[in-house]
Amino acid sequence: MPGPAFSSKPFKASRSASKAADFSSRYRASLSRHPFLLFGLPFLVTMVAGSFFLTPATALRYERYDHKVKTSLQENALGLKKERRQFDIREEYFRLSQKLDDDNWENKRYPRPPGDSDGIL
After folding, report:
1. Alpha-carbon distance 49 to 56, whole Å?
2. What DSSP letter does each residue of 71-107 carry, written as one string?
3. What is the residue-level pLDDT of the chain in tens, covering all 121 positions?
4. Measured between alpha carbons, how far is 41 from 26 in angstroms, rounded to an integer?
5. Domain boundaries, the chain
6. Cβ(63)–Cβ(71) under 8 Å?
7. Which among 62, 65, 84 is positioned nearest to 73, based on CA atoms?
8. In contact, 75 and 81? CB cutoff 8 Å
9. What is the pTM of this model?
């Protein structure tokens, strides 16, 4: 009679696999005991990193505001604001529509460049 189909020795996991399983089980257990590591620490890291990443954006905002204030001060000093008329889109529309003569127009075709086909088969 032949020997058993399977060896009688139980499977022993390798050292590294048992270490990984041991580490993951310890990590899960520590998370259940210390929820700060799962929720609080990532939140604080996000807040601190966000403040560093948003600093240039806020600086740009204030630089634009300063530029706007400087230009308005220069316009006031030169008196440019006084001669400007208020812009009204309706007024501009009517002014431009009076200039256009929609009744007297002619459709003109531009000549094709040399060597270009005329589209006739």
Report:
1. 13
2. HHHHHHHHTHHHHPPPP-HHHHHHHHHHH--SSS---
3. 566 666 666 666 556 666 667 878 888 888 888 888 888 888 999 999 999 999 998 899 899 999 988 888 877 777 666 666 788 999 999 888 888 777 777 888 888 888 887 777 6
4. 18
5. 36-99
6. no
7. 65
8. yes
9. 0.34
